[in-house]
């Protein structure tokens, strides 16, 4: 998103122009990531980034490309099994941090007798159910309300690529092209490549496909988009180049 | 101590499967290096080398000390390597890992023991005073193949380095500041470079140059060959791992020679560019007190 008067760049501790804070008659103001309410009536940013306000939902947050993932509830993440204990798995969301836990019964149709057996190093796609700063995060691979997997569970085959947290977030947006400005995956699909992806909010993207070449092309497209901070037009050029190189 | 993060099973399998099909994750050929780049600092003797995402900084410095008692005619030359947590959280300060020990040992063998630097030219007064040249190697980020990048950085830093000019009159040693006399380069005899091959497959039948971190984590063995552009081999280190057939090793050495010639030409070009950049007024030839060897 462009930096302008409505979406200014903020630094930690800056004062926020009161005219930018959304007001709504009924809904309470919701503060998203990167903002902190200091009672009675001060709101200060805690990270450097772009201040975004949504007047319809009466919410505001700071958009930033952080380097470190901090779990928060309902995030979809890709984790790596570290080891299994009596009734849960220890899962790493980011290397060199304390691991999250995943109950062995939190899979679709799992009972005490039929639980999935995952080796250390296996990848899973999961949702964060519990996260606070004093405890390790908890994960689940099944929807609590429907009892269905809904796409979550072990990821077999394929390859996991590391991307920045900002790109992972943009990829996960419902309208990633309009809001996030990432189009590479759609473009690659449009060129006739068959692949499936799972995007983890913790900065990992899993790509699966029958053909190794396709996976490598998708991985390179994601990496180059991320590192070069490419716009939509440049992403088109990149995809054309990658497709040409594949043939 | 934090253990190095293991790649997931999927990544392990995929990297190996792709290699079976002669594909690498960044679509390089097996014997291609990532883009190598060297930049010199404003000070003499600072070289920053980047090899893809691997970055290494080397800084050469010199001071006057007393020579070792058993070698009164030689100067002191040492290489200090440091893998800090900045390169990867699995490295700790003051607790060298195996990687770090191997790195310093290989640099020692390649640059110091091969006599690349003429230590006799560092002697000032026999048995009393000599130059002590020290190179500090800092790995800034680790994305595989730290050895080749570090070796290149050390050689680049030493060749870029200028030590203060000195004179001895009536037994009194004078060290001149750069303002008084133009600093002089070190006595450099040849430029050795490391080329590291990584082996994959059951019997190490696939060989790759310049492995990234992901590839390094799944390789079955590696071999570091150090040589200069004349094809004089300083050392070959194949430390453990799967045995590799002699024919493959011979091929690797032949390719390593072409790579080293490229490195050598690239470094010569970059050093010449740097001299040109510093020589703004075009008077450096007049200022120098150095004679042709």
UniProtKB/TrEMBL annotation, chain A:
Q: Which GO terms describe its molecular function?
A: RNA binding
Gene Ontology terms: cellular component: cytoplasmic exosome (RNase complex); nuclear exosome (RNase complex); nucleolus
Determine the domain of life of the protein's source.
Eukaryota
The protein's matches in Pfam families, at most eight in alphabetical order, are given as: KH_6, Rrp40_N, RRP40_S1
What residues does the K Homology domain cover?
158-212
Matching CDD domains: KH-I_Rrp40, S1_Rrp40
- Key words, A-Z: Cytoplasm, Exosome, Nucleus, RNA-binding, rRNA processing
InterPro entries registered for this protein in UniProt: Exosome_RNA_bind1/RRP40/RRP4, KH_dom_type_1, KH_dom_type_1_sf, NA-bd_OB-fold, RRP40_KH-I, Rrp40_N_euk, Rrp40_S1
- Alphabetically, which GO biological process terms does the record hold? CUT catabolic process; exonucleolytic trimming to generate mature 3'-end of 5.8S rRNA from tricistronic rRNA transcript (SSU-rRNA, 5.8S rRNA, LSU-rRNA); nuclear polyadenylation-dependent rRNA catabolic process; poly(A)-dependent snoRNA 3'-end processing; TRAMP-dependent tRNA surveillance pathway; U4 snRNA 3'-end processing
Residue ranges of every copy of the Exosome complex exonuclease Rrp40 N-terminal domain listed in the record: 29-68
**Keyword Hydrolase listed:** no
Q: Where in the cell is it found?
A: Cytoplasm; Nucleus, Nucleolus
Q: What family is this protein classified in?
A: Belongs to the RRP40 family.
Q: What is this protein called?
A: Ribosomal RNA-processing protein 40
Supply the source organism's classification. Eukaryota, Fungi, Dikarya, Ascomycota, Pezizomycotina
TrEMBL record, chain B:
- PANTHER family given in the database record: EXOSOME COMPLEX COMPONENT RRP45, EXOSOME COMPLEX EXONUCLEASE RIBOSOMAL RNA PROCESSING PROTEIN
Keywords for this protein: Cytoplasm, Exosome, Nucleus, Ribonucleoprotein, Ribosomal protein, RNA-binding, rRNA processing
GO MF annotation, one = mRNA 3'-UTR AU-rich region binding
Q: What name is this protein filed under?
A: Exosome complex component RRP45
Chief location of this protein within or outside the cell: cytoplasm
Do you know which Pfam families this protein is assigned to?
RNase_PH, RNase_PH_C
Q: Which family does it belong to?
A: Belongs to the RNase PH family.
Name where it's found. Cytoplasm; Nucleus, Nucleolus
Stored InterPro entries: ExoRNase_PH_dom1, ExoRNase_PH_dom2, ExoRNase_PH_dom2_sf, Exosome_comp_Rrp42_subfam, PNPase/RNase_PH_dom_sf, Ribosomal_Su5_D2-typ_SF, Rrp45
Q: Where is the Exoribonuclease phosphorolytic domain?
A: 33-164, 191-257
Q: Name one GO biological process term.
A: U5 snRNA 3'-end processing
**From which organism does this entry originate?**
Bombardia bombarda
Q: Which GO terms describe its cellular component?
A: cytoplasmic exosome (RNase complex); nuclear exosome (RNase complex); nucleolus; ribosome
């Amino acid at each position: 998103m462009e930096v302008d008067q409505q979406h200014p760049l903020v630094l930690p501790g800056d004062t926020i122009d009161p005219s930018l804070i959304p007001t709504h008659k009924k809904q309470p103001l919701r503060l998203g990531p990167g903002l902190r309410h200091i009672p009675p009536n001060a709101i200060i940013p805690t990270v450097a980034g772009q201040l975004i306000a949504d007047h319809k939902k009466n919410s505001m947050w700071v958009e930033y490309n952080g380097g470190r993932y901090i779990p928060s509830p309902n995030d979809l993440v890709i984790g790596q099994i570290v080891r299994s204990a009596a009734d849960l798995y220890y899962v790493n969301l980011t290397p060199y941090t304390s691991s999250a836990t995943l109950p062995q019964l939190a899979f679709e149709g799992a009972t005490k007798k039929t639980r999935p057996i995952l080796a250390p190093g296996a990848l899973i796609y999961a949702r964060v159910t519990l996260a606070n700063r004093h405890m390790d995060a908890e994960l689940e691979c099944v929807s609590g309300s429907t009892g269905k997997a809904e796409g979550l569970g072990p990821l077999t085959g394929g390859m996991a690529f590391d991307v920045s947290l900002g790109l992972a977030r943009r990829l996960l947006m419902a309208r990633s092209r309009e809001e996030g400005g990432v189009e590479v995956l759609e473009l690659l699909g449009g060129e006739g490549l068959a692949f499936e992806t799972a995007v983890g909010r913790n900065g990992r993207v899993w790509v699966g496909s029958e053909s190794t070449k396709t996976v490598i092309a998708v991985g390179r497209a994601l990496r180059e988009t991320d590192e070069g901070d490419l716009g939509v037009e440049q992403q088109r050029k990149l995809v054309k180049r990658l497709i040409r190189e594949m043939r | 101590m934090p253990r190095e993060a293991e790649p997931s099973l999927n990544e392990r399998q995929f990297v190996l499967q792709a290699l079976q099909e002669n594909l690498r994750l960044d679509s390089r050929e097996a014997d291609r290096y990532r883009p190598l780049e060297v930049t010199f600092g404003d000070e003499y003797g600072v070289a920053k080398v980047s090899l893809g995402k691997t970055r290494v900084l080397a800084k050469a410095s010199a001071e006057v000390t007393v020579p070792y008692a058993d070698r009164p005619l030689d100067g002191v030359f040492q290489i200090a390597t440091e893998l800090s947590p900045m390169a990867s959280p699995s490295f700790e300060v003051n607790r060298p890992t195996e990687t770090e020990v191997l790195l310093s040992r290989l640099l020692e063998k390649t640059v110091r023991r091969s006599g690349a630097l003429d230590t006799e030219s560092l002697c000032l007064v026999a048995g009393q005073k000599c130059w002590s040249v020290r190179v500090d190697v800092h790995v800034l980020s680790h994305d595989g193949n730290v050895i080749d990048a570090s070796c290149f950085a050390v050689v680049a830093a030493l060749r870029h380095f200028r030590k203060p000019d000195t004179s001895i009159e009536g037994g009194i040693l004078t060290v001149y500041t750069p303002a008084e006399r133009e600093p002089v380069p070190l006595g450099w005899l040849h430029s050795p470079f490391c080329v590291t091959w990584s082996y994959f497959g059951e019997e190490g039948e696939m060989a790759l140059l310049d492995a990234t971190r992901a590839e390094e984590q799944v390789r079955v063995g590696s071999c570091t060959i150090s040589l200069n552009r004349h094809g004089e081999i300083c050392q070959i280190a194949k430390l453990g791992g799967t045995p590799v057939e002699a024919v493959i090793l011979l091929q690797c050495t032949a390719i390593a020679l072409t790579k080293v010639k490229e490195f050598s030409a690239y470094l010569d070009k970059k050093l010449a560019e740097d001299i040109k950049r510093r020589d703004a007024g075009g008077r450096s030839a007049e200022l120098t007190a150095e004679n042709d060897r």
